[in-house]
Write a structure and sequence with these properties.
about 110 residues; mainly beta
Length: about 110
């Protein structure tokens, strides 16, 4: 089993930046893909970005050019650098893996 813990969320003004982190523990050696999802109030959970163990990354169109996903050297950590944040980026952000493990989520609020 894999346990995931997110950190780094909070309140930021429009145009600001935040960096989310996800730390995995347990049987991390079998993780091949890690993702960030988000869920805004009243909306479905959506995939934000994906990072594979071979270095491949993909992004939702809504965050391309603003967000950057990366994996740590030990592959059991993942980051999401979020720049030029918009109010519509407000959501609970979740860490997820190819093993269908989920973190508890962390709130990101973009507001002036």
């Amino acid at each position: 089993q894999v346990q995931l813990v997110e950190s780094g969320g909070g309140l930021v003004e429009p145009g600001g930046s935040l960096r989310l982190s996800c730390a995995a523990s347990g049987t991390v050696f079998i993780i091949s893909r890690m993702d960030w999802y988000r869920q805004a109030p009243g909306k479905q959970r959506e995939l934000v970005a994906t990072a594979t163990s071979t270095g491949g990354t993909t992004y939702a169109d809504s965050v391309k050019g603003r967000f950057t996903i990366s994996r740590g050297p030990a592959k059991n950590t993942m980051y999401l650098q979020m720049n030029s944040l918009k109010p519509e980026d407000t959501a609970v952000y979740y860490c997820h893996t190819n093993l269908d493990s989920w973190g508890r989520g962390i709130q990101v609020t973009v507001s002036s």
